[in-house]
Design a protein that fits this description.
The mean pLDDT is 96. The chain has no helices and 11 strands. It is an all-beta fold. The strands form 2 sheets. Strands 2, 4, 5, 6, 9, 10 and 11 form a 7-stranded mixed sheet that branches. Strands 1-3-8-7 form a 4-stranded antiparallel sheet, with no helix packed on it. The protein is globular and about 40 Å long.
């Protein structure tokens, strides 16, 4: 059983940056594919970014490509998301997720964190 705890959310002005972190425990972090998702009020949960444990392949959602960077530090069981050039449209609850299977962009992840709120003011 993997536990995931997100941190780093908050309020930021448009054009600013935030760095989210996800601390994992209870499993072999280095063997999981990891992802970030977000959900805005009244909207479906959306894929943001993911990183595989094999070859550290990174994939991004179209709306964040070029602005967000995903990274992982397996020795510290930590996943991060550097978010730059934020816009009000990035406002959402951001979730960290882990899975042992492939298909990084889908919602079919095995474990989820509780989420951290990101609010971008205009």
């Amino acid at each position: 059983q993997v536990q995931l705890v997100e941190s780093g959310g908050g309020l930021v002005q448009a054009g600013g940056s935030l760095r989210l972190s996800c601390a994992a425990s209870g499993g072999t972090f280095g063997r999981y594919n990891m992802g970030w998702f977000r959900q805005a009020p009244g909207k479906e949960r959306e894929f943001v970014a993911a990183m595989s444990w094999i070859q550290s392949i990174k994939v991004y959602g179209d709306s964040v490509k070029g602005r967000f960077t995903i990274s992982r530090e397996d020795a510290k069981n930590t996943l991060s998301l550097q978010m730059d050039s934020l816009t009000p449209e990035d406002t959402a609850v951001y979730y960290c997720a882990a899975k042992s299977g492939s298909a990084l962009r889908t919602l079919m992840y095995d474990y989820w964190g509780q989420g951290t709120q990101v609010t971008v003011s205009s």
